[in-house]
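A protein record in our archive is deliberately plain, so that people and models can read it alike. The tokens are whole numbers drawn from a learned vocabulary of local backbone shapes. For reference, a complete record is included directly beneath this paragraph.
>
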Amino acid sequence: MANKINFTVFKKFFESGKIGGLLLLICVVISLLIANSASANGFSSFLAKELGFNIGSVAVSYSISAWINDGLMAVFFLLVGLEIKRELLEGELSSIKKASLPVLAAFGGMIVPSLIFFFFNKGEATAAGWGIPMATDIAFALAIIVMLGKSVPASLKIFLAALAIADDLGAILVIAVFYTAQIHWDYLLMAGGVFALLLALNYLKVKSLWFYLISGIFLWYFVHHSGIHATIAGVLLAFTIPTNTTAVESPLEKLEHALTFPVNYLIMPIFALANTNITFQREMVDGLTSPLALGIIAGLFLGKTLGVTFFSWFAVKIKLAKLPSGANWKHIIGVGMLAGIGFTMSIFIALLSFNDVDHILEAKFAILCASVISGVIGFVYLKSIGIKKSVRPIN
């Protein structure tokens, strides 16, 4: 039987993680330097500038910051959606046996951090941020595990990639259901009409990407105005892009290939540049003991590690899944640590969670600290294990 999906695209996407993650890190540093220099106010004013046009009742004028967070990030979610669809069709999520370990690990890595955050923030004004420690940053997590090279089994890298993709799907659902403000049903109905059109194009086996992309622009506009976060439009569009059952490159693969470079090397670095602008103050260190910061740091580092490890163990214990080839439980613990790198997605959810500027800045600083802790400790821990250690399954 011919393969439905060509894995060359996934290989390129995965291999780009190391350089993409490095560029992301550089933009984080630049953003922090700008925010703590004389250019801070000028940069903030630049991000607040309006771009776009208004024609009658059609309003397409937003701040540069909004274009980045609602527009460019919709393209990021389009690529994530393509990844999810491909994995569901023929990748690590294509069967119950294959998907059970990364999916259950991702679920544990979402529910445990959110419970830890809730424990620290119950009854606080910051309780709405419970979704912040649920997310894993694909770019940074994969960049670090790629840098480990032969120190970890190749199967562990695939496991982390599948876990991060399943985690992103969960984060998308959380954003759509819990971080949506007032619903404007007229726009939602129009968005539903465009989505139905996209499904019809797929059903009729229309292969030209232009029909999907042009329709996707209208879908984005209507979703944005409906009250649901505009990035969801990217995922909906991705699920309608057709694939095929031959070795010929499908429209899904073509679009994924076309988006991989701009997303990894342009969109995500721009997002980091625009949203990591934290002006450091002495009070921030004291703020790390606040319920918000403790919930985020403990949720991302401890919650992800415990959630991923325990739910993986449970899946293996009930014989629903088995460990990745050549990996042992110490490797799974290390992956759990790396899953605590919640940088891009966590900041994105923080922006949706709060209106208070101080809460946003405090959350960003805590996310930055937690991601550094998770990344450094996870890297050192996995490096110290190596792949020559014997496998000792937990009974």
Q: What stands out?
A: The longest helix spans residues 357-385. Residues 113 and 303 are 4 Å apart (CA to CA). The beta strands are 50-55, 58-63.
